[in-house]
Amino acid sequence: MEKVTCECGHQNPYGTELCERCGKPLKEQQQLLNMRYEGVARRSQTYNRSVVDKVWNFFSSVKVGIWIIFLILVASIFGTIFPQEMFIPPNVDPAQYYGEEYGIAGEIFYTLGFHNLYGSWWYIALLAALTTSLIIASIDRVVPLYRALKNQRVTRHKSFLSRQRIFGESDVASQDATYEAVKEGLKKKKYNISEENGNLVAEKNRFARWGPYVNHVGLVLFLTGAMLRIFPGMYVDENVWVRDGDTVPLPGTDSQYYLESEGFTMETYDEDDEMYAEALERSGGPITETYRTEAVLYERVDGNVVGVDSEQQKVKSHDIEVNDPLTYDSYSIYQVDYKLNELYEMDFELESEETGEVYGDFTVNLFDPEDSYEIDDEREVTIHSYFPDFYFDDDNEPSTRSSIPDNPAFIFAFDGPEVEGTEHRFVGIQQNHPVTEDPVYNVSFAGIDTNHVTALTVRKDLTLPFLMAGGAIFMIGLIQGSYWTHRRIWLQKRGDDGFYVAGHTNKNWESLKRDVNAAIDGTDIESPEDQIVKKEESKKQSASADDRADTGEADKGGR
Amino acid sequence: MAELSQNLLMVAFFCYFAATVLFAVSATGKNFKNSSGDYVNRWGTYGFIMSIIGVLFALGYFGFRWAAAGHAPVSNMFEYTVFLGIAIGIAFVILYAMYRSTILGLFAMPIIMLIIAYAAIFPQEVEPLIPALQTVWLEIHVLTTALGQGILGISFVAGLIYLVRTIDVSKDRKNKRTFWLEFIMYGLLSVLGFVIVTNAFNFAGYESEIEYAAPLEDGETYQDVMDYHLPPIFGPSEGEVMTEGAMAPLIELPEWLEAGDVNSVMWALLAGLVLYGLLRLVFRRRVSALLKPAVRKVDPEKVDELAYRAVAIGFPIFTLGGLIFAMIWAQIAWTRFWGWDPKEVWALITFLFYAGYLHLRLSRGWHGEPSAWLVVIGFMIIMFNLIFVNLVIAGLHSYA
Asked: What distance separates the 2 farthest-apart alpha carbons in chain B?
C-alpha cells in the first residue's frame, strides 16, 4: 500500500491516523484525538481481507483477550467446586466416588469431565488461545508504537495540541521569560526536554510504555515453558520408599543414582513448651516438628565393561527435610511421606512342644528371609511358605496382599532327631497351629525388630529455567508498566504573544495535571483544562436538577 | 511478650477508631477559620496522623509476636487476617499520601477494624509451625501476598466510595444498582453482626458438643464431636447433643456439608439481617443513603483514579507474592510449583480477574461505575479465597 504524506512532509505508513511526526490527524477524528497507540497504523486496523488478516485481527483484539481471560477464570472456578481427581483417595473409582460423595451435583461434575478440568483438552486450548492472543496483540501494537514514538517531532500541528485531553492557551507578557520559567519547572519535575524552534516537549518515563509488551513476552515464555514438559527427558516425577539402612536405585534416573537412608526421624514439639501449651492442648495430640531422612546419594560409575563391573560412588550426603530437598545434577529428592516402626525382623525360639525346652533361636528378616535356619547340629527350621501380609483369599487359601510385612505369617518345616521325616507348623501374629498331627516341636515369638521407612519423591524438571526466566521478565514488565507512567507536556508558541500547553499520559491524569500546574506556577500561563471533565460537567449541569432536589443543596464538587 | 503484643493490637484498634471519628468530622464538619483568615479543615490531617499511629501500634503487635513466636505471625487464620487488616492500613497510608483523600480514611478505617475484629474470633494462641511452614518463604510469600491484597483492599474501599457517591439512592429510585449497593452494605453488616453475636455467646460462655458419625474415606464412619460456640441452627446428620440443657439443632444437614461452618454462615446472615433491619427501621432510609452526607464533597473522578491506582500498585505485588513466590515455595516444599490446589486456583482466579480489570480499563465505557463494581467484586474474591477456601474447601492450605 502506498504511504500517506502529511503536510509536514512526513511519509506515514498506510492506515496511520495521526501523523507520526507532527500529530496532524490524517483521518476523521472525534473532537478529542484518539491517542491510543499514538494513532499509528496497526495491521489489525488496516487490513481485513485474507484469512490470515481475519485470524490476526481476531487475536489482536483486547476485547477477545479479555473474553479469553474471563473464560479461563470461569472454567477455573468450576474446577474447585469439588476436589479434582488427583485429590480424591487413590483407591476409589472416580465414576462412583463423585456420585456417592456429592450426590447428583457430583455426578454432573464427573460426567462433564470437571474432575480433571485443568488437564482437559479445552482448558489447554484456552491457554493456547491466550498465548496466541498475547503474541499477536503485542506485535500488532508494539512495532508501530515504537516507530511513532521514535519519529515524533517537538513542534506539533495545532490541531494535535488543541484536541488533547489537557489543553489550554494563554496570552503572555514575555514569551522568552515564560518559556524559560516553564522549562525550569519541568526540569525540576525531572522531565526530559527536547526543543525545536522555540517550542518544547517535556517527556518522561517513555520506557513505561513497553511494560505491557515486556510482561507479555514473559507470560508467553512461561506458558511455552510449561508446555515443554511433554517432551521426554524434560520431566521426572517418581516416588520411592526407602527403609532405614537400605540403598535403592532412584527411579527415573535409569539406575544412574542410588540413595541410602541412614535413618528416618520424626520429631514432635515438646509438650512442656510453655509457648505452645495452649495450642498443643487444643490440637489434642502432638504436632510434628520435623521429618528427616539422613540420605546418602551414590552414582553408578561404569568400569571397563559397561554395565558389568560398575560400582557405586558416594557423591553427596544430605539431611532431607520438608523444605530442604537433596539436589544433585538436575534431580531433587524430597521428603514426602513416612511409615514408622514397620516390622523388619522377627525372632523365634524353637522349643519342645511337650516340655517347653528351648533348643535354640533364629531371626527372620521379613524382607529377605533365608530358606532355612540351622538351630544346632541336628535341628533345622525351613521356611516352607511366607506370607508378608497374610489373609485368606476368596478360595479360603492362605495368601498375601502385598510384599510389605504388615501381617507376616509362615509355614515352617522342622527337621531333627525327635521326628521322622518333616513336621510343619503355621505361625502368624497371634496364630500358631501345628499342621502335622502329634507335633514335637513348637516355635514361640521371642521379639520383633522394627524399622522406619521414608517416602521420597524424585523430581527433575528441566522446564524450570524457562519458567523462572518467564516469571522474572513478566514481573519486570509488570512493574515497568505499572509503577511508571509515560507523560508528555507540550509548550508551543502561539504567534508571538501566547502559548499553547497540552499534556498527555497513558494513565493517572490527576498526577499529570499536578505536574503541569507546578511547571506553569508563577507564569502568565493559565492552568489548562481537562476537556473530558469539562464536557462531563456541562452534561451534568443540564441533568442535575433532580439530584439537587434529592440532596437539598447544590453539588459543590470537589475541584 | 505475646501478651504485650496483644495489648498493642488493642491500642491499634482504638487508634483506628479515633481516626474514623476524626475523618468523619473532616468529611461532614464545617471548615475552620485559621489565623490568616482562610477556611481550612485540618481534621483530615489529624485523622491521617492517628491512622499512622494506629499502623505503628499494629506493627508493634506484629513485631513483638514475631519475636515471641520466632516466626512471622501469619501462620493461622487469626494471624493472617489481622495482618491483612494491618496491610490495608499500610496501603491506606501510602495512598493517602498520594491523593490526600480524607473520605478514603473514613471508609478504610472501619473496614480495617471490622477485619481485625473478625480475626479475633479465631483461636489466638501462638501455634508451632508444621514442617511445611518452617522456612523463610513463609515470610516472603505470605507478607508479600497480604500486602498486595491490602492495597487491592484500598481499591475496594475507593470503589465503594465511588458507588455511594454516584448512585442515586433516594427513596423513589429502585433498580439493580441500588439493590446491589444495599447488598454490599448488608454484607458488611453481616460481618459486623457475626462478630457481635460470636463475642456475645463467648462472653456468656456458650458451648455445646454434638456427637455425630463422621464419614471416613473408605465409607466407614467414626464417632466425632463437633464443638458449637453458637447455638446450632444447623447440625450434623443424626447428631446427638452431648451438653446438658443445650438445644438440639433445628435442621440436620447432609454429611458432605460442614454443619458447623454452615451454622456460622447462617448466624452471620441472620445477625446482618437484624442489624440491617434495625438501621432501616430507625432511619427509614437505605443504609447507603445514610453514608451520602459524608461523600457529598467527593470528586468521583478522583476516587475512580484512586481505585485504579491502587490496583495498579497492588496487582504486581499480589502477583509477586501470591503466584511467583508461591510457586517458588511450592517447588521447594511440595516438589511441584503448581498443583491445582483450590487455594492456588483461587489465587490464579484473583490474578485473572484483576488482569481482566486492567485490560478493561483500556476500553471505552469501563471507567467510573463499571470499574467501581469490578474492584468491589475483586476484593470479594480475595475474601472468598481467605475465608471460604481456607475453611470450607479442604486443601493443602487449610492450616487453620
From this structure: 82
What are the tens digits of pLDDT across the range A168-207?
999 988 888 899 999 999 999 999 999 988 899 999 999 9
Cell 458447623 -> residue: B260
Q: Which of A20, A9, A22 is nearest to A196 (CA)?
A: A22
| CB A408, CB A387: distance < 8 Å | yes
Cβ of A69 under 8 Å from any chain B Cβ? yes
- Spacing of C-alpha B139 from chain mean position: 20
Specify whether the CB–CB gap between A243 and A344 falls below 8 A: yes
What phi and psi values does residue B212 have, to the nearest 5 degrees? Answer: -150, 165
Residue of B130, B346, B359 lying closest to A66 (CB–CB): B359
DSSP A252: T
- Burial of B210 per CB tally in 10 Å (0-12, 13-18, 19+): buried
Please say whether the dihedral angle defined by the alpha carbons of residues B65, B69, B72 and B76, taken in this order, is positive or negative: negative
pLDDT at A555: 37
CB of A559 within 8 Å of any CB in chain B? yes
B354, A64 in Cβ contact below 8 A?
A: no
pLDDT digits (tens, 9 = 90+) for A218-277: 999 999 999 898 888 889 999 999 999 889 999 988 888 999 999 999 999 888 887 888
Q: What does the alpha-carbon distance between residue A528 and residue A465 come to, in Å, rounded to a whole number?
A: 50
B126 CA to chain A: closest CA distance, Å? 6
Q: E-assigned strands of A302-354?
A: 311-321, 326-328, 331-352
A555 contact B CB<8A: yes
- Contact (CB, 8 A) for B78 and B119: yes
Q: How far is CA B119 from CA B75, B109, B306, B387, in A?
A: 13, 15, 27, 10
Q: Could you report the predicted ipTM of this complex, rounded to two decimals?
A: 0.90
> pTM of this prediction?
0.89
Cα separation values, A70 from A52, A54, A79, A114, Å: 25, 22, 15, 18
Residues A84/A90, Cβ–Cβ less than 8 Å: no
- Of B151 and A48, the structure prediction assigns the larger pLDDT to B151
Q: Answer whether B315 sits within 8 Å of A323, measured CB to CB.
A: no
A275 with B68: Cβ contact below 8 A: yes
- Closest residue in chain B to residue A509, using alpha carbons only: B305
Strands (E), chain B: 32-33, 39-40, 208-215, 221-228, 234-236, 240-241, 251-253
Please report which confidence band the pLDDT of residue A304 belongs to, taking 50, 70 and 90 as the band edges. Answer: low
Between positions 129 and 158 of A, the ones with CB within 8 A of B are none
